[in-house]
Structure formats: structure tokens, C-alpha cells
From TrEMBL:
It comes from Methylopila turkensis. Keywords: ATP-binding, Carbohydrate metabolism, Kinase, Nucleotide-binding, Transferase. Catalyzes the ATP-dependent phosphorylation of 3-oxo-tetronate to 3-oxo-tetronate 4-phosphate. Belongs to the four-carbon acid sugar kinase family. It catalyses: 3-dehydro-D-erythronate + ATP = 3-dehydro-4-O-phospho-D-erythronate + ADP + H(+); 3-dehydro-L-erythronate + ATP = 3-dehydro-4-O-phospho-L-erythronate + ADP + H(+). Residues 3-229 form the Four-carbon acid sugar kinase N-terminal domain. The keyword ATP-binding applies. This is 3-oxo-tetronate kinase. One of its GO terms (molecular function) is kinase activity. Signal peptide: none annotated.
Amino acid sequence: MFLGCIADDLTGATDLALMLAREGLRTVQANGLPTDDLALDGVDAVVVALKSRTIPAAEAVEQSIAAADRLRALGAERLFFKYCSTFDSTDEGNIGPVADALLDRLGARFTIACPAFPANGRTIEHGLLYVNGTLLAESSMKDHPLTPMRDSDLVAVLGRQTARKVGLVDIADVGRGAEAIRAVFAREEGEGKAYAIVDAVRDEDLRAIGAASADLPLITGGSGVAMGLPAAWREAGLIAELFEPAARLDAPAGRRIILAGSCSTATRGQVAAAREAGVPDFKVDPRAIASGAIAAEDVVNWVVSQKPDGLAMVWSSAEPEEVKAAQAELGREAAGALVEGLLGEVASALADRGFTRFVVAGGETSGAVVQALKVDAFAIGPEIDPGVPWTRSVGGRPLALALKSGNFGAPDFFLKAWEKLA
């Protein structure tokens, strides 16, 4: 293994694993620290999925360092710290504290921070992060229930999370290619800066950034910045060969289900599109779960009663006003935990009843579902939409899983995902 990756949530890990696989690295994703029996023969990259984005910073650091030590023990020569393309965090962290700790662990002085992913509408220009052409602080992320993003200036955002100096590689330098970018890296490091936010508005920018970053022991960013790394490492002789990813996933036979826990704008649109297409649906509300009006058994019985060869959807996606009302009544974290717990129970019960194909929306929801299904690792399959692949469980019960970040995917994602299964 050459590359070890640490992701702060499950769908972010899958997003990065897809990018690496798409660009030619043999990639396996582990949910938590890789187990001793995880087969790594012929594997180029291992992505460890943590659930550390919104936990206390000290705990995030502890978990991330444990993952880094495990990956290095398995032979990783480079580390990648993956966070969301919208830089989801608070002024206390967790991006800065984890990156600081990883730099210290490696004895490194400098790295980059680049969450850009133009294919999903995330671009950085003059240090400002845009979401589909709108400044981050003016996008729907400003109302995120756990990590509301009210500042678009990534130099300032990261600067509040670390005592180290933060610099910038401006789009003008990025546009001049890898050599120019490396020259700015050297200048920023020479000025005592430990981090450089790197602008990117096109895939070509990401490939140039990857080439410029190939020698860095630690890289931090979204999955987009990994786009140029495999080719750069291959050219440098660090990776023996690159491979072509499969166009379809050989999925286990069985029934299928959509579980949508995210309340993001993209997921709400996907839920609406599925309902408009006539997909049978069951809405769950955290207040109904808390009162006992809805239990996992009720949802499971409804799903099982649908046509065996058809598609059904269980969803909790709500408008911001409805989310705030539920949080006010139940508590911010408790409201989400109730939904995640119920959908995890539903997924486990459905798997016992012959469901093998799951589309899951939302990072926290995906984590709860994967934990409930006891999936320790999976292989990466074909891309459905930018940042979202099908995966197949490794070991244990055979399952096909599409784990979608709440913000990712086209409006028809829930409808078209199944076309990638063989």
C-alpha cells in the first residue's frame, strides 16, 4: 500500500475512494481502523472512514492519529486527510486541530488545504469558497444544522482553527501549472506558513495541484484534489501501474430500498423527484419516533409489504424550518440521532428479509446504516454521480451500497442509481 487516507465521515471516505479508484489506484475503504484480516494484497490505497467531523476536537485528533499510525504500520508512504468540499467545521475545528496533529506526527512543516470539487459546484477563487456559484456563506450551508458556514474566506476559517500561519495559492498561479504552484508552496513555507489554501475552478487546476503536491507527506482537502495524484505518483515511479475501474457493479441478488436521512437541499430535491416518479414512500419524523408513534418495526413492515420487484423509499428529509422546530423540541443532536438510529434498525431488519441493495443519503445516516449492517470494509464500484459510487461489502453478508453525501447527486439520483448494477 502506498497511500493511507483518513476521512472525517463515511460518505466523504467513499467520495475519496471513488476518486482514487477512478484515477487508477486499487482502493479499499475500511469503516474504522482496518482489521488484521483485511486483505490488502495488490491494494494501492486504503481509506479509513471515521465519524469525527462534529465530535469534540480532542476526540477527533485522537481518532485521526490512531488511524494515521495504523495506516503507516500497514506501509502507507503518504497520508491524505479528507474533509467535506464545503469545509464543514466550526471555529474550534475539527479540520485545523486534526491537520496540526498529523503534521506533528509526520514531522512535516507544510501542507495544502483544498476542498474544491468543480464537478459538484465547489470552487475556490482568491481564497473564497463557492457552492454552485454562490459564496459559501450565502449558500444553503449557512443553515447547516451542525456546522453552519457563515464565512466564505477559507484563509480566515482555517486561521481560526490553528495557531499556525495560513497562506494562499491564488488562481493566477494555479493557472500557470504545477511548477508555478510548487514555487508558491516554497515561498509560503519559507515565510513560515504551515498551510496554503489552494484555489481551483476547473478539473485542470486540480490535476496541476495534484502534480505539485506529489512530494508532500501529508495532503488535506476534498476528494477533488486527489484527482491529479495517481498520475503524478505513477510518473514519479512511486506507483507501478494504474488500472481501469469497472463500469458496472456485480451486485448480489435481492430487493432494493432507498433510505434518506439528509435534510440538505440536494437530497430534498431527490426525494421530491422520486415521489413525483411514483416511488412509494414512508416519511419518518424525529418527534414521532420520540413519542413512540413510529417504530422501526412499523417502517419495516411497510417496506416489506411493497412490491418485491419494485422500489420503495423511507425518508426524513425536511425543510430548514421543520428541522429547527424538531431540534428546539428534542435537542439539536438528539433529533438527528433518533432518525439515524431508526434507519439503522430498519436497514438491519431489511437485510435479514432479503434486501441486498441499499441507496442511503446523508453522511450520518450512512454511518448508522453501515454500522447496523456490520460492514467493516467495501470495494469501490462504478460512479453514479460525481463523488458517489456503488460499493460492495468485503467479507460478511454480500451487499451493494450507494452511500451519498447529502449535498451530492443530481435530482434523479435515486431513480438512476440502479442502472449501474449488473
